[in-house]
Amino acid sequence: MRWLTVFVLLLAIPAHANEVTLTGRMVQGGLVTGRVPAGTGVVFGSRSLRVGEDGTFLLGFGRDTTRASLALTYPDGRSETRTLTIARRDWLIQRVDGLPQQTVTPDEAELQRIRDDAALAAEARKRDSAEPLFGAGFIWPVIGPISGVYGSQRILNGQPRTPHYGVDIAVPTGTPVKAAADGVASLVHADMFLTGQTVILDHGFGLSTVYVHMSAISVTPGQRVKQGEIIGKVGATGRATGPHLHWGMNLFDVRLDPALLVPPMPKPGG
To answer: 176 with 182: CB under 8 angstroms?
Structure first.
């Protein structure tokens, strides 16, 4: 009867258990590439995701996400919901007290500029382009010392500031900035209050990268770029204490850690 035992065990495994693959780091700030049979509907949280012709889709986990829900509806009508457990990370928290309050809280005019800039960036990040330009992966946009990491946060005079959503790379003004992947310039702005000269590249399926504080921009809105193509130069525009590139990544409105998608930072000249 051994064959009967094996048969019963096989029946206990859902027929579609191996029809879903998730590749990537299931951690806070992580991006995961999924693959399902073509024609499968995928809902992540409350968002219906784009699924490519080959069954590819993207999942992104925010800085503070610990659990997420993935609902799948297969072409034959079967459905399932999976609960994903997202690994926690430790964040660098810095407390600074005794600062003049006017340096901590912007005035109303500055706040309005910040809101207006944020609205422009949010609109660019709503794009859900069908072409998977992210498919070839990502490279570092500049090579140099990392001076700021994703997820870190300052608490100024007891007030928590917005966490740092990206990677800062400290290199001299004028250093060429390269596109981290193939993309289309969805936002080009010469003077944002906090971020100065800013470019957002759309990589498809809601995935985008942002390049901040540049001293020069060499792309125009709607321009298509290839991975490694120069899109501007490093600077210290906006609110920056010195020349560096802030490089960030989003999946729609979810802020991700781009450092998780590239190899360790190589040594300059290496």
So the answer is: no
What would you report as the CA-atom Rg of the chain, rounded to the nearest whole angstrom?
21
CA atoms of 188 and 217, how far apart (whole Å):
8
Looking at the chain, the whole-number percentage of residues with pLDDT higher than 90 is: 78
CATH architecture of 2-85: Sandwich (2.60)
Cα separation, 138 vs 262, whole angstroms: 6
Exposed e or buried b per residue across 120-150, where buried means at least 16 C-beta atoms within 10 angstroms of its C-beta? ebeebbebebeebbbeeebebbbbbeeeeeb
pTM: 0.89
CB 194 within 8 A of CB 117: yes
- How confident is residue 98, by pLDDT bands cut at 50, 70 and 90? low
- Beta carbons within 10 angstroms of residue 256's beta carbon: 26
CATH architecture of residue range(s) 93-261? Distorted Sandwich (2.70)
Q: Are the C-beta atoms of residues 265 and 146 closer than 8 Å to each other?
A: yes
CA nearest 96: which of 153, 152, 164, 156?
A: 156
